[in-house]
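[Automated response] Your request has been received and processed.

Submitted sequence:
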Amino acid sequence: MATLRQVVLDTETTGLEWRQGDRVIEIGCVEMIDRKLTGRHFHRYLNPGRAIGAGAQAIHGLTDEFLADKPAFPEVVDELVEFVGAAELLIHNAPFDVGFLDNELGLCGREALKTCCDGITDTLRMARDLRPGKKNGLDALCVEFGIDNSSRQLHGALLDAELLAEVYLAMTRGQESLMMDLEMGSAEVRSLSAVDRPPILVIAPSDDDFIAHERVLAEIDKESKGKTVWRTLAA
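Generated structure:
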C-alpha cells in the first residue's frame, strides 16, 4: 500500500485581505506519514515589507520590530515548495491561507499552491459536516476532542498546525481501522473471517407467542383502519 504523506499547514498574516495588500508573516507546517506525526516541520517568520494591522497583531502578537530582520517570502519559497511537495495539505479554513499563499507565490512568479502539493483538504469544512450548527474554530474543536490547547494564548502558525494535526486525527479516527484492513492481505482478512464462532441459537415461537402477536396486530389493524403493514406483506 502506498505511503500516505500529509502536511498540516497554517499561516499568520498582516491582516485579513491579501487583495488589499496584506501579506504572510508566518508559515507553520507539520508532517504526518500514515497518520503519524513524524516530528519534521517547516516554520518560518517573514518580513512582509509593510506594517501589521492592529487587529491582526492582537491575534498573533507578532510585531513589525520582531519581523524586521526576518527573510522575505522569496527567500524561503523553495524550502516551502519542497516541504509540501507530494503531500496532501490539511488547512483549517483553507480558502484564507491558500489565497494568501497563492498571492505570495504569484508575486514570486510561481504557480499556485495546488500545483505544488498532492491536493488540499479544508478541515473546517470537514468539521462543519461532522458538527453542523456548532462552533468549529480550532479552540472549540480542541475542547470537543479533549486536546490540550492551554499553551494557545495567541495564534501561532506552528502551534496551530500541531493542534490541527491532533484535531484532524481525532475527527478521522475511524479511518485507522479501514487503513489497517487495507494494509492486511486478502488472505489475512479471510483468516479473520474464518475464526470459529459458536452456532447461532434459533428459538421458535410458542403458541402463546403467536396468539400475543396476533392480538397486537389486531390492535394495530384497528387503529390504522386496516393498513397494517405486516398483514399486507403476509397477503
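Summary generated for your ticket: Residues 31 and 40 are 6 Å apart (CA to CA). Confidence is low (pLDDT under 50) at residues 189-194.
If you did not submit this request, please reply to this message.
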